[in-house]
Amino acid sequence: MTRQRISIASVSEPEDGRVGSQCLKVGEQLYISGQIAFSNGELVGAGDPLEQCRQCFRNIEAYVAEAGGTLDDVVSLNIFLNDIRYREAAIVARSEFFSDPGPGATVVGGVDFAFETVLAEISAIAHISKNCSECGGR
């Protein structure tokens, strides 16, 4: 099956494409790598776990849209927090971005990130069907 890299302007890709991709579309599945609260190379929401989670979801939303879908197509999230006490911020942000029923989610706390200022990282899987009668043919 063909893998297609999906890119957005506000998030950079690794210099060496063999190292990885921020987002891949394989058939009707979209795999979005862990997003951190960076936009155009700058941290969004320093010290604010809620704003960092929001920016992660903004990035995810942009990837899904670029692939032709909406956040309603997201079926699974992995949410990593450097402090499990930020769980409530992740819940609030999820409620702002997703409709009922929201995607399944796993939340892990106590994570050490590559950048000390990063408080959250969120990856996602979406199913984007071009022939779905229930989703308006997206």
Automatic annotation (TrEMBL):
Keywords for the protein's UniProt record, in alphabetical order: Plasmid
CDD domains referenced in this protein's UniProt entry, alphabetically: YjgF_YER057c_UK114_family
InterPro entries membership: RutC-like_sf (IPR035959), YjgF/YER057c/UK114 (IPR006175)
Protein name per Swiss-Prot or TrEMBL: RidA family protein
